[in-house]
Amino acid sequence: MTRSPADREPFPRREAGREGGQPALAESPLTAPDFQRLTAVSSDIMARLETYAALLEKWQPRINLVGPATLRDRWRRHFLDSAQLLPLLPEATERLVDLGSGAGFPGLVLAILGVPDVHLIESDQRKVAFLRAVSAATATRITIHAARIETVPPLAADVITARALAPLASLIGYALPLLRSQEGSTGTCLFLKGQQVEPELAEALAKWSMTVERLPSRSDPTGVIVRLGALSPLSHPLTLGF
After folding, report:
1. Which residues does residue 144 pair with via DSSP β-bridges, in sequence order?
2. Correct CATH for 30-233 of 3.30.70.100, 1.10.10.10, 3.40.50.150, 3.30.565.10
3. Where exactly are the structural domains of the chain?
4. What Cα–Cα distance (Å) separates residue 174 from each residue in 27, 51, 60, 153, 226?
5. Minimal CB count within 10 Å: which of 3, 36, 140, 218?
């Protein structure tokens, strides 16, 4: 994946598997200047993100794109939450697929930040209209699949992302047909999860073989970024004891 100088990565790149990193930010609302300072995005990209934020506020009363209480802290709860995935992407990422994109977090934010060939999958036609409006207003090239995830044909994605969509075991089932598979390896999944991540991981590990990394969220002190790789179904799924 090649990025121009204007598309600088937010945050220093972390070592694989490292727990910790920067402490969670205070819970006072994050402003647009705060976001730009933290992420070091260019003025051009920041202007496009501010256009996105304005459209989110405009459309929210009609569609309920995000939790109403989160709009007050949109730069942390949605934009920073999405942008923190950028330095976690493999260097060679050429295609990213975002499952159940909703209002476009994280996929559309990552596209604005310079990730190439981003595909957003969203079945709600009202939200699809919003995604198209943001894409046009911010001059961001994306591919939108207005369909249910299970009906989308294979996309050979390098990375699959999702936020607040489904338990991990279900997400993996959705993701695997859409990931690239080459010489016995698959692409990478980056899933934004909350406090229930451990029971979800236990359920997923009973059905799927995979590598797992838990990375702390930089937007939510209770959040976890789950990075998965080398995905394949277990030949003999395990039975959980709960």
Report:
1. 120
2. 3.40.50.150
3. 30-233
4. 33, 31, 28, 11, 16
5. 3
Specify whether the CB–CB gap between 193 and 200 falls below 8 A: yes
Which tokens hold the place of 207? Answer: 């059905």
Indicate the pTM of the whole model: 0.87
Q: Cis ω on the peptide bond leading into residue 106 (within 30° of 0)? A: yes
- Burial of 32 (C-beta count, 10 Å sphere; 0-12/13-18/19+): middle
- 85: helix, strand or coil: coil
pLDDT tens for the 242 residues of the chain, in order? 444 333 434 554 433 333 333 444 446 899 999 999 999 999 999 999 999 999 999 999 999 999 999 999 999 999 999 999 999 999 989 999 999 999 999 999 999 999 999 999 999 999 999 999 999 999 999 999 999 999 999 999 999 999 989 999 999 999 999 999 876 678 999 999 998 899 999 999 999 999 999 999 999 999 999 999 999 888 655 555 44
Positive or negative CA dihedral for 59, 73, 81, 174? negative
Q: Looking at the DSSP assignment, which residues form a beta bridge with residue 189?
A: 160, 228
Q: CB-based burial of residue 50 (10 Å sphere; 0-12 exposed, 13-18 middle, 19+ buried)?
A: middle
In contact, 120 and 144? CB cutoff 8 Å: yes
